[in-house]
Structure formats: structure tokens, C-alpha cells
Amino acid sequence: MVSALVEGGWNLIDADSTADARKLCERHDILAGLALMPRPLSNDDFQRIRRTVVELRDLEWLAVLAREELARPDLRRFAVSELRDYQAYPIDPLRLTIALGHAWGLAALADAERRARANFIAGRFGLVGTSASMRRLYAQIDRVAQSDLPVLVSGETGTGKELVARAIHAQSIRAAAPFVALNCAAIPASLVQSELFGVTKGAYTGASVSNGGLIRTADGGTLLLDEIGEMHIEAQASLLRFLEDKIVTPVGGRNGRKVDVAVIASTNRDLHEEVHHGRFRKDLLYRLEVVTVRTPPLRDRPSDIDALARHFLMGAASSLPRRLHGFTDDALDWLRAQSWPGNVRELRSCVIQAGLQSRGHQITAKDLASLRPLPIAPEQSLSDVVKMTEKATLQQLLTRNRGNVSKTARDLKVSRMTLYRLMARHDIARP
Question: Within this chain, do residues 30 and 173 fall inside the same structural domain, yes or no?
Fold first, then answer.
């Protein structure tokens, strides 16, 4: 077999263990794997080979095995979910060469697609998306990161507010210093002040040790106050005082300490509405919204859904029971048709759930539709749904046609001027 493959132009590299195989893949441009299962096949040998194949899923794998081993249920499941092909002993060198060539060709195509998709998906700052709204967000992050003023990041639940805050920190002059996040919604009102400003030993029952607090932990870096709208009104007064003088005084303490931190706050609430109802201090809001950044909801960036879905599927690949090669066209259509009230977080959950229950090598619309029906929010009128569908269709066609207005107008069977008016109506910039 080895002689036949070498004569056929193949370069064979032998690995004795998973760690050895991983190092060889890092050192060489390897796209296909050939798993030689010994006869008889012990359970230890099978588990070693299975572990290697699962860990190196980016390769297209073939196996050579004894036909009688296919009676094992665990080996059959492994072959169906992880292998491109297999051949039973005795080996037919010609058939093996053809199968290996087919696997290598598919692997080369997948590798090229993966590289192109990585460049497309990456976006900026670890955020995914190339839509007009995301490009505006990237520009805002660039500008905001150059200042040291308080920043308010607002947006619906699941739109990536913490990722934006981390991106601002990473682009700032404080990037090498700590980034500390406090979830204001998860801390009881009675503990917010001690979490932020620290506490001296014996300040209250249960304070058995002194604690410097999160603000001091973030000294020199950035403090994120996540869901600031949930902060208790009394703690808001202390926070306002800190923002004005940058001095931290622990609960029960007398001596303050000057601290140098950049403050970013995030919220999914309308803080002006919270001020109106007396749940948020107006003076604190004015202090925080010196610079504001808004994260766009997913319904405003449907052209990013394909890239986001592929990104989440790639990220979950090692946790899924079988190897998946992306989405069918009808699956992507299904994803684009959703309203996604939970935004990117909901999309991620949906993709992973579909990947877990998929029985093929691609996620289909049937896999996705089994999770839930196509939703329409109760507050949406028919007019709202029509507008959303019209906007999504325009964005998808423009993206598919790479911004070519003439081709998009022909696809829609409208004039260029009509298309420009539709784009203006929906605030769509040319991709």
C-alpha cells in the first residue's frame, strides 16, 4: 500500500499518537488523514485512533479496517460521523488512491473556503459582520478608544455590549492594564458598594476581611459596569461621586485613595425613561453619556446572519457529536427570515442546538424549524413585517451582488432610481 501511494505521488507522514499527529499538522501542510486500524482491533487502539480523528477534524479522514469490525456499533457510529470513506482489508491500492485523492481535493476546497470565510467573518475587534451598521460601529470604537472619557454602550439584550466594551479597552492606551467587569444586575443592592469600593474589616456583620473592591482592581485599566440601569439608586450616588473625584473610599473606611480607571457602562434599558420614573439619577446619566455607542440589533443587520451562523458553528465544532460542513441554502434562508428578538445570543443558541440534533453533514432548514416555528413578535403589525422583509431582501441582494446596483435592480425588476429610493427609505448604504 505504501509503495503504491508513494508511486502515485503521495507524501506519507507517520504519527504514533494524537500529540505527534497534532505537531505534524502544525509543521506540514496536511489536509487528509489515513487511519490504519490493526487486526485485531483492541479497544485501546480504537479509542486512540478515534481521539486523534475527532481532535483533527479539519482533515478529511479515511480508514482501513477489517470488515468484521463493522459489527461494532461504536465503530459504525464513528465511521458515519467522522470519516469521509473507509476501505476493508485486503487493500486495493488503486481504489485507496482514488478515495484519498477525492478526500484531499475536498479538503483543499474546504481549506480555501475556511480561509476566505475567516477573512470575511473576522470583521474587526473580534466582532463579526461587515454590514453598514457594523462598519459604523467599528468606526465608533476607533474614535471612542482614543479618548479617556466615560462611555455608555446601549443596546438590546444579546447584541454584544460587553464585546464592544472589551474592544474599546483593547484599542485604548490602557490595553495592557486590567479589564474588570461588574454585572450590576447580579449583585444584591446591599453589596454593590462593597463590591465597587471595597470594605474594611469589621465594617458590618460578615466583613471578616478587608477587600479593596473592583475599582481598585481595575486601577490603570478599564471598569465595565454592565447593566448599569439595574444599579440601586443609593449606589448610584456613590458612583457619581467617584466619577467626579476618582477617589475610592471603602465601606467603613475613612481614608480615600486616588484611582485611575476608565469607566464604561452598558445598558439594555432606556435610561432617560428610567430617569423619568425616578429609578436612575439624571446627574449620573449626564456624567455617563458623554460618549455613547449603540450596538445594532440583529434585525438591522440581516446581511451578517450567514457569517455569524458559520462563525458560531465553527466555534462549536469540537463540542458537536458529528462533523458538520456548514448550512444548506434553505437553512440560511430560514435564519434570515427570523426576527431574532434575542439577537446574536439567540442566533448562537439556535445554531448550536441545530448542530447537536442534525443527522446529516450540513444543518438544514428542517433541523432549524424543528426547534421553533417562524416567529412574528406580537407587537409587530403586518406593515412592520412587510418593511422588515423588504429591507432584508434588499440587503441580501446587494450583498450577493457585491453592491452592484444595476444587477440588483434587474433582479428585482425595478429601475435603478426606484432601487435608490428603496435604499434611502430603509437607510441602506451600498455594501
Answer: no
Tell me what percent of the chain is helix, strand and coil, each rounded to the nearest 5: 55, 10, 35
Residues 6+ apart with CB under 8 A from 424: none
**8-state DSSP, 228:** G
Which residues does 314 contact at the CB level (< 8 Å), separation at least 6?
Answer: none
Residues 335 and 237 in one domain: no
Whole-model pTM: value is 0.61
Residue-by-residue pLDDT tens, the chain, 431 positions: 888 888 878 888 888 888 888 888 877 778 889 999 988 889 999 999 998 888 888 788 999 999 998 899 999 988 888 888 899 988 888 888 888 888 888 888 777 766 655 554 556 888 998 888 898 899 999 999 998 899 999 999 999 999 999 999 999 999 999 999 988 887 777 677 788 888 776 555 555 556 778 888 899 999 999 999 988 888 888 889 888 888 888 876 677 788 999 999 999 999 999 999 999 999 999 999 989 999 999 988 888 998 899 889 988 887 787 778 888 888 888 898 888 889 999 999 999 988 888 887 789 888 888 776 544 444 445 455 556 666 767 777 777 777 788 888 887 777 777 787 778 777 777 65
Domain boundary among 296, 330, 352: 296
Domain with 419, as residue range(s), is: 377-431
Based on the domain organization, do 186 and 283 belong to the same domain?
A: yes
- Of residues 228, 342, 346, 238, the one with CA closest to residue 280: 228
> Looking at the structure, do residues 273 and 181 belong to the same domain, yes or no?
yes
CATH of the domain at 224: 3.40.50.300
Q: Which residue has the cell 450540513?
A: 362
CATH of the domain at 352: 1.10.8.60
Cell of 304: 451578517
Residues 358/313, Cβ–Cβ less than 8 Å: no
Number of domains in the chain: 4
